[in-house]
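The instructor's notes for this session suggest beginning with a concrete chain rather than abstract definitions. Hand out the sequence below and ask the class to guess, before any prediction is shown, which regions might be ordered.
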Amino acid sequence: MDKIIMQGMKFFGQHGVLHQEKELGQRFEVDLVLELDLAEAAQRDNLAATVSYADVYRVVEEIVTGPPFHLIEAVAGAIARAVLDGFAPVQAVTVRIKKPGAPVPGIFDYVAVEISRRRAG
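After discussion, reveal the predicted structure:
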């Protein structure tokens, strides 16, 4: 299966279990891998034969900057559902959400969740 990869999208959101995470917010980074057949797009050189990166970006942005979730697992799930529901050519999606400012004592680059979802049928 062919892939469209969108890596390092950065947004400010208010997701988290702790009160200060919802009140103050923090940065989230999102990576997506969209699996779809790109043969027609490669042959025809036509946007109508693929998925618009800009449209996918807007969907991700709306979810991450929108109403807060307690868990980044839920954010990732919402993104996966929205991509599969909104972009018919996408057969599978992998979503990685990185939380660089997670309220965990210690030194680390980020905490992340990665989920993969496939279109049913």
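Then share the key points. The helical segments are 19-24, 39-44, 53-65, 72-86. The first strand starts at residue 2 and ends at 13.
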